[in-house]
Amino acid sequence: MDAETGHPIGDPLKLNGAEVAFSPDNSRIACGGNNGTIQIWDLNTGRTVGKPLAGHQGPVIALAFSPDGRRIISGSADQTVRVWDAATGQPIGQQTTGGSVLSVAFSPDGTRIASANSDGTIQLWDADATHAVGPAMTGHAGNVYSVAFSPTARGSPPAVRTRRCGCGMPTPVSPSGGHWSATDGRSEPWRSVPTANGSPPAAGIGPSDYGVPNPARSWASP
Question: Which intervals of the chain are annotated as region Disordered (predicted)?
């Protein structure tokens, strides 16, 4: 869809899954399938690019391109995080988490990966998913549905602003700017998307099934 006019661009793509990610140059999208595969599409031609990326043993739930568009990270119900070469489709690395991987994100400089997991943890990985970076971050009482890095560097003003539902009070964010935030518990899923000009993005957190506000949490990036 054209974001300004709301009109469709080209014919609909027949996708086998609900998770999609745009490449940084907006020329391709990756679609995660319920069958555990990932298919890349050329948005200019509307055709698939190469063969599906196969390896996951469960539905692909989370996808993201690296900032330079050369890698794709995927998270699955099979409790693995995998990194792929976006040009060749070859696997680069993978790691096992403690639960289904519900959200993934690359750091702005492409050197770190974050995965949000159904066991209530967030884990940092190196860009190739060959090893963990530091211990898992804990504190959430339920599923972590979304994770995002701040688009600004350390020493800059805070770039991610979140608010608690019900009271509307800001969730504290360190002034260093090296933070991200994630939802937990029974909140409605949301996504914090950095803006192109680096200005603070907006993020909404829905109420839980029991009507209890669910706060976001934030951690400093090592």
Answer: 170-222
